[in-house]
């Protein structure tokens, strides 16, 4: 058996992906060969896009037996002042071996931290990650609704008014950032992988969500709606129609990105009203499906999703590896 950092060929990668039981969006009935070639193209372009992205592979008799592909995360790295990457794919029958090679290469490259998200069905991959020093940080549950064919159940609270965010309006931006600052620090309701990692400073994890909200309302996402109650901004939701997916895999889908409600306004349906408006907007822009993903401990979002008619469709675990604890 040999191993190295030579990138796999697209054809070889496709061979591994075709053997996967669970590929992203397989729950929508997209043909497996379409998903596998889409993923292999995406992973190869990622490797071609930057020298900071890399692959390790394990071969036996020249045949690819395992591969791991990582993407450097400039945004997360800047926020935490650490070099952080994300494991985008690990596959093949020699998973534990390839992950050992991957861990050693991550250390050699001076990475401080590597994130890995695996679908919950892939318990064995999670266990392989644990065996080489990755630690569980959070779990995400995603729910979906066919907004084209199913009627939206939208329980409304007449005391909560939802309106579009005004781009470039400093009051609206200030209100969103103030809510984000509180909602993901002392008024947090769920565990997320940044805050769950004791090695990531809490203040920086708090800041990450504020920066995420800022980017989201300044063009990273398609839409933002604000909820108003008692004449004040009480919450916000952002999201997008993932239009590139229609061209790439024939899936018309949109998703909520970020949402938060100020602590004083919680428990009166503000999130439910915001989510309902976001789903309507996703539908109006031509999507067939809309998704809401949340942390497994975010019971309010899961309750609201199910009351709006969404059904759970996929879930994943997030792990972190760190140079501080390479093998523990
Ligand atoms: C999660 C959050 C957005 C919910 O906002 P909210 O306006 O209080 O939610 P709603 O009032 O619309 O409640 C939604 C549903 O969840 C229920 N709910 C609220 N807290 C709950 C809990 N701890 N367990 C179970 N259900 C809960 C509500 O009762 C409601 O269901 P109901 O209408 O059947 O009673 C808010 O708590 C928040 O901003 N949290 C911090 C940031 C965050 O986690 N954002 C979401 C992830 S991106």
Structure description:
With 328 residues, the protein is of the alpha+beta class. The protein has two domains: 2-132, Gcn5-related N-acetyltransferase (GNAT) (Aminopeptidase); 144-314, Gcn5-related N-acetyltransferase (GNAT) (Aminopeptidase). 38% of the residues lie in helices and 29% in strands. It has eleven helices and twelve strands. The chain has a twelve-stranded mixed β-sheet, with helices on both faces. Helix 4 links the parallel strand 4 (84-91) and strand 5 (113-119). It is globular and about 70 Å long. The two termini are 26 Å apart. The mean pLDDT is 95. Bound molecules: coenzyme A.
Reconstruct the topology from this structure.
Layout: E1 2-4, H1 10-18, H2 32-49, E2 54-60, E3 63-72, H3 74-80, E4 84-91, H4 95-108, E5 113-119, H5 123-131, E6 135-146, E7 161-164, H6 170-183, H7 193-196, H8 202-220, E8 223-229, E9 232-241, H9 244-249, E10 253-261, H10 270-284, E11 289-295, H11 299-307, E12 311-322
Parallel strand pairs: 4-5, 10-11
Antiparallel strand pairs: 1-2, 2-3, 3-4, 5-12, 6-11, 6-12, 7-8, 8-9, 9-10
């Amino acid at each position: 058996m040999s191993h190295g950092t030579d990138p796999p060929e697209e054809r070889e990668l496709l061979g591994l992906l075709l053997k996967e039981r669970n590929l992203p969006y397989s729950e929508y009935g997209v043909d497996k060969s379409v998903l596998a070639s889409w993923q292999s193209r995406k992973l190869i372009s990622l490797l071609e896009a930057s020298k900071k992205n890399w692959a390790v592979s394990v071969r036996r008799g020249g045949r690819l037996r395992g591969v791991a592909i990582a993407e450097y995360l400039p945004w997360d790295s800047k926020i935490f002042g650490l070099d952080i990457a994300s494991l985008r794919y690990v596959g093949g029958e020699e998973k534990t071996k390839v992950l050992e090679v991957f861990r050693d290469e991550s250390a050699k490259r001076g990475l401080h931290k590597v994130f890995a998200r695996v679908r919950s069905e892939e318990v064995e991959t999670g266990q392989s990650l644990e065996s080489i020093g990755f630690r569980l940080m959070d779990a995400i549950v995603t729910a979906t609704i066919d907004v084209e064919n199913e009627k939206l159940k939208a329980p409304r609270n007449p005391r909560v008014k939802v309106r579009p965010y005004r781009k470039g309006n400093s009051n609206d931006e200030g209100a969103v950032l103030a809510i984000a600052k509180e909602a993901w620090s002392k008024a947090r309701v769920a565990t997320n992988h940044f805050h769950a990692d004791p090695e990531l400073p809490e203040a920086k994890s708090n800041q990450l969500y504020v920066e995420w909200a800022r980017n989201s309302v300044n063009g990273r996402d398609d839409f933002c709606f604000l909820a108003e109650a008692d004449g004040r901004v009480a919450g916000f939701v952002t999201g997008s129609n993932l239009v590139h997916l229609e061209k790439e895999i024939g899936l018309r889908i949109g998703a909520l990105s970020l949402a938060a409600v100020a602590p004083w306004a919680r428990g009166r349906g503000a999130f439910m009203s915001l989510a309902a408006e976001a789903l309507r907007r996703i539908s109006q822009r031509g999507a067939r499906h809309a998704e809401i993903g949340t942390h497994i401990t975010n019971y309010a979002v899961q309750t609201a999703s199910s009351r709006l008619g969404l059904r759970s469709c996929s879930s994943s675990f997030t792990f972190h590896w760190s140079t501080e604890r390479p093998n523990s």
